[in-house]
Design goal:
- With about 475 residues, this protein is of the alpha+beta class.
- The protein has helices spanning about 40-60, 95-115, 115-120, 125-140, 145-150, 155-180, 185-195, 200-220, 220-230, 230-235, 250-255, 280, 300-315, 325-330, 335-340, 345-365, and strands spanning about 5, 10-15, 25, 65, 70, 70-75, 80-85, 85-90, 245-250, 320-325, 370-375, 385, 390-400, 405-415, 420, 425-430, 435-445, 450-460, 470-475.
- The strands form 6 sheets. Strands 11, 12, 13, 15 and 17 form a 5-stranded antiparallel sheet that branches. Strands 16-14-18-19 form a 4-stranded antiparallel sheet, with no helix packed on it. Strands 1-2-3 form a 3-stranded antiparallel sheet, with no helix packed on it.
- Strand 1 (about 5) and strand 2 (about 10-15) form a beta hairpin.
- The longest helix has 27 residues, at about 155-180.
- The termini are far apart.
């Protein structure tokens, strides 16, 4: 005897009887392929606006130039990050950390305010799935045509499937090539690709990112959002009952049921929901929004667009499925009443911390001196007596020029009577380069007692008076 149960997402889970009273339940049912239906509306247009914006930025940035070089380049080999007018070294890692913290807090803030806006509109998984679905629709047709095609013969499917996967592969390869162009100069990378002279690591990352794009957006799709993305699991910690989410209004829609356009639903005891299931058909993750808030919902609003179309056809008020809050649904609040709940404690805390960190990063970048130097003692020669009885210590200075102009700098030292640099005091550091410099420092004999003495090295730019740095070190006098 075969028995079946159905979970909330309409997945059929077979129950396999075993001997006696024991029952074995197969918890891992095979994936049910989702065929999202195309939909038009406000949120669909908004999604495509973000598709265009994000892809123009992603594909366009590596081709922009700034001062004769690539405007945005994370040159890992030379350990320099170029961000338009900024040249950052590994020592500036604190700014990257700050940007990541600001991004995380922004995600928390937006989630508290309006749910999974990032997931629904700007997440790469959502964006590329939207692009791949559009290609699928152009090649194979809309939902009904794709269902018929998949039920048809292999001979009928093969040409369209081959063309679709060819186009998917082309988009994925171009995406992988663009991704690699953020870490290697794009024009050099393009020339090497055309000449068939790509290096092994460049080839690996292009193919790896292309494969990830092709697999995630073409095959896995909603599985990434439902099972692989950790954000789906902890988003509820940032939700409260005043968070704007895509919600079905059961007070207005229930009891649901099919009816003709000219039927008086109230006379039949029906709500506004006509049980057409279009909201399920357009959902990219295959859920039924009428079952309430679910972690699989990415907040894209496709179900709201679809429901509004159906409501308009039946002459009902739009907004049976809409962006609203749980408190708003329960109390029947108007939109102005819900918006007044925006400035609640959680939002104020997130906003305050976010603004404070963003201001600190901005201030740090503003006061940042685009020239750095480190002092390293020459461990091979700690101290020695040279001609005339003078005591000499040798140091190695690491000069890092984070400007895009060659800098001539004067190296000085102070802190002890008669202390002086006897090597060349003026050196030239090329633009965005690092120069290592051996510096000999001497003091007159019998100037100080034996032991270490504090000194300070100074670096003064001759072309930019604003660049003046100091670094502490120690001068050793032998016994």
């Amino acid at each position: 005897m075969d028995a079946r149960v159905q979970d909330k997402n309409a997945h059929v889970i077979p129950i396999v009887p075993v001997t006696g009273d024991e029952v074995e339940v197969e918890l891992y049912a095979a994936r049910r392929k989702i065929y999202p239906r195309s939909v038009n509306g406000t949120f669909a247009r908004l999604r495509w606006v973000f598709v265009w914006l994000t892809q123009l930025v992603f594909y366009g940035l590596p081709w922009l130039t700034w001062n004769g070089r690539q405007a945005v380049l994370f040159a890992l080999e030379s350990r320099r990050f170029y961000l338009f007018g900024l040249v950052l070294y590994p020592q500036d890692f604190i700014f990257l950390t700050g940007v990541l913290v600001v991004s995380a807090l922004s995600l928390f803030l937006f989630t508290t305010l309006a749910g999974r806006l990032w997931c629904g509109y700007a997440c790469p998984q959502t964006v590329y799935t939207e692009i791949f679905l559009w290609i699928e629709k152009v090649v194979e047709g809309d939902r009904a045509a794709r269902l018929r095609l998949d039920r048809g013969s292999l001979a009928a499917r093969l040409p369209r499937k081959a063309l679709k996967h060819l186009l998917w592969g082309a988009v994925a390869m171009w995406t992988g090539f663009t991704f690699a162009g953020y870490f290697a100069p794009m024009r050099e990378l393009g020339g090497a690709a055309l000449a068939g002279a790509l290096g092994p690591w460049q080839t690996f990352w292009i193919l790896f990112y292309a494969f990830a794009t092709y697999g995630n957006a073409g095959w896995m799709r909603e599985q990434v959002c439902k099972y692989m993305c950790p954000y789906a699991r902890f988003q509820s910690a940032m939700f409260d009952k005043d968070t704007m989410i895509v919600t079905y209004d059961p007070q207005r829609g229930e009891p649901r049921g099919p009816r003709g356009k000219n039927v008086d639903a109230r006379a039949k005891g029906l709500g506004d929901c006509v049980a057409c299931d279009v909201c399920v058909q357009v959902c990219p993750t295959g859920i039924d929004i009428r079952n309430g808030l679910q972690y699989e919902c990415i907040g894209c609003g496709a179900c709201a667009d679809a429901c509004n179309e159906v409501m308009s056809k039946f002459g009902y008020a739009r907004g049976l499925v809409r962006y609203t809050t749980q408190n708003g649904i329960a109390a029947g609040w108007t939109r102005p009443q819900m918006l007044r709940r925006i400035l609640r404690p959680r939002v104020l805390v997130y906003s305050s911390v976010l603004l404070a960190i963003a201001a600190a990063i901005g201030a740090g970048l503003y006061v940042r001196v685009p020239f750095k130097f480190d002092v390293i003692r020459d461990r091979g020669v700690l101290a020695r007596v040279v001609e005339g009885g003078r005591i000499e210590n040798v140091y190695r200075l690491q000069l890092m020029n984070a400007t895009e102009a060659t800098q001539q700098v004067r190296v000085g030292v102070e802190g002890m009577p008669g202390v002086a640099i006897v090597s060349e005091p003026v050196v030239e550091v090329p633009a965005t380069e690092v120069r290592s410099l051996a510096v000999r420092v001497q003091v007159p004999p019998e100037t100080a007692d034996a032991g270490p003495h504090a000194i300070r090295f100074t670096v003064q730019s001759l072309s930019d008076p604003a660049i003046r740095l100091q670094e502490k070190s120690a001068f050793l006098v032998p016994r």
